Amino acid sequence: MAASAVGIITLVAVVFAGPLAWAFATYVQSRRKAADGAAEAGTSEGQVDGKATEREEMSGVAYTLSLLGYAIGLGNLWRFPYLVGKWGGGAFIIAYLACLVLVAIPAYLMEMVMGQYTRKSTVGCFKMIHPRWDGLAYGQALILLLVMAYYNVLLAYAIIYIAGSLVDPLPWAADSKNYFNVEVLNGYDDYKGKGLGPVQWKLALALLVVWLIVFASLAFGKKILTKVTWVTVVGPIIMLWVLLIRAVTLDGAADGIEFYLLKFDSEVLGDLDMWASACSQILFSLSPGFGTAITMSSYTRPKENVFRTCMVVVVCNSAFSLVGGFAIFSIVGNITFRLNAAGGVLDEATGAMVATTVAEQASAGTGLAFIAIADGMRAFGSGTNAMSVLFFSVLLTLGLDSTFCWAETFVCYVEDYCLVKGRTKPAHWKIVGCICAVMYLMGLLYCTRMGIELLDIVDHYCITYYLLLAVALEAFMFTFDFGWRRLVVHVKLATLGNLRTPLGQDVVPSLFWRLGIHITMPAWCLFLFFYIFSTDVAEPYGGYPVWMQGIGWFCLAALLAVTPLGFARSLKLGTGSTLPPLEEDEAALAAALGIKSTLPPLGQNEESASAEGAKA
């Protein structure tokens, strides 16, 4: 093997693409401000109506970029195509879009508004709405710890593959499946009598690199993080288009795209497992229920239009998944073409070589990215190393954005805790360093020989279950203790007089939003929660050993035990909500509308909708 000049040059270009985009955007913004005479400089970050705010704030661009990076993650380019292949192509896309509209979008807007309104992290926000919900916030903090511990191990895989892409020929060229299972994971052939096993040094080293990147990006404040997100948000978009343009020209790409667009298995629409997969996919992608959207929104400017930002993030997130599907299925189509041209695949039942299909190759689970697509990189000829660097760099940067937001959320929890308790807040870089160190040590559990199996167990029993429960409980919290009317008034008041919304932003159509928040969100999430529970009780998940199933059930039980603590404490102490009276918000809006006599009041439909929401 020799170093690949093409691979090294591509990696250098990838690293510098983001900073160049940030520098160009900064230059354009500075020229625009100079041309406008900095007319709006007086109402910049840290000020609202001329008054200084206490909480550190992000600009609108930084806020949007952070949420985009948070939403567009590994699952968009890896798990989404795998699920499309597993569940019959277009049928899964329909279920995905239905869950997006009826569950994820209402939950996302609800969290963003609550975060901006309270100006607090998730724990503080829920306590302010009503102390009985702080147990839910602590449960969400725990799942943040769990997901950060295992999620970055997937990024460690990408680091190993990026390093492998810098040599020619690719180290997995001879046998991509053996390379992943033996060289990267060194997993066991069976589970009988096995424990987690020793830590694999390659994975441990790659995981250390990932957490060092996270530390360097977060330790020195949000201005540095904003610059980094230009790399991790803009970079994947550019790289995806390069990958897409090249992938669609491969032999067999048309077959892959045909499956992606035209394959429709209507029978699976009645399969609840498919709906559970679709709902968990969009919830994990946008991630309402983690509390991160609440915390990130608490840092945005009070005059920011979170309704518009919500729509931008939702559309871009799903568009990235759908467009990325074209690139992935083009490569999967080529893999299928090459396998069939070579005689097909071995049928273990008959021992004969048989033709394979796009559906079979696309439903390879974790192996879709690290076995099938890695093997598919060989189809790019002289550009093999360059395209391999591009693909695995996309996976890495997509994952880093999500980790940045999760870690920043947890840092905010620690800082807010110090403020509430009246303690001296440690330096920001020290808090970040401690969190990264603890997460790295926890992550070593997933670098063992059975690490990927443990990862799957924790993801299923903790994240899938608790996200569904958390979103349902948040809907109840909003309905009974925050209120639809408060949301409508806040969004209108916050955006009143803005350049793009001089009349204020109306939350329309109100019937859709109220239906989602009050009915479809809690009903569908609770139904899927209990359906998955009954399925796992009847048949242990994944066929994993009993001791590993026990870990999953124990972690879920711990999360469920934490959740009602706030209710018990609230009943004992008799504490209540510390939200300002709704009448104050309505009076402020009325005063603003009275001063600006040309502005119309809330639409009649909004008033009636809000009144109904308040009664609920």
Rg, Cα atoms, Å: 25 Å
According to DSSP, the number of beta strands is 6
Number of self-contained structural domains: 1
N-to-C terminal Cα separation, in Å?
67 Å
- CATH top level is Mainly Alpha
Mean pLDDT: 84
**Major beta sheet, specifics?**
2 strands, antiparallel
Kindly state the percentage of residues in helix: over 70%
Instruction: Write down the CATH topology.
Output: Amino acid/polyamine transporter I
The order of strands across the largest sheet is: 1-4
InterPro entries: Na/ntran_symport, SNS_sf
Protein name: Transporter
Subcellular location: Membrane
Transmembrane segments: 6-25, 60-78, 90-110, 136-163, 201-221, 228-254, 274-294, 306-332, 352-374, 386-407, 427-446, 458-477, 511-534, 546-567
Secondary structure topology:
Blueprint: E1 2-3, H1 5-36, E2 47-48, E3 51-52, H2 60-71, H3 74-77, H4 79-86, H5 90-118, H6 122-129, H7 134-164, E4 167-168, H8 176-184, H9 201-218, H10 222-247, H11 253-262, H12 272-286, H13 292-298, H14 306-341, E5 345-346, E6 353-354, H15 358-362, H16 367-376, H17 384-420, H18 428-443, H19 451-482, H20 484-495, H21 510-538, H22 546-562, H23 565-573, H24 582-595, H25 604-615
Antiparallel strand pairs: 1-4, 2-3, 5-6
Please characterize this protein's 3D structure.
Pfam families: SNF. InterPro entries: Na/ntran_symport, SNS_sf. It is found in: Membrane. The radius of gyration is 25 Å and the shape is globular. The chain has helices at about 5-35, 60-70, 75, 80-85, 90-120, 120-130, 135-165, 175-185, 200-220, 220-245, 255-260, 270-285, 290-300, 305-340, 360, 365-375, 385-420, 430-445, 450-480, 485-495, 510-540, 545-560, 565-575, 580-595, 605-615; strands at about 1-5, 45-50, 50, 165-170, 345, 355. The protein has one domain (about 60-345, about 355-590): Amino acid/polyamine transporter I (Up-down Bundle). By secondary structure, the protein is an all-alpha fold. Mean pLDDT is about 85; it is low at about 40-55, about 595-600 and about 605-615. The strands form 3 sheets. Strands 1-4 form a two-stranded antiparallel ribbon. It has a two-stranded antiparallel sheet with strand order 2-3.
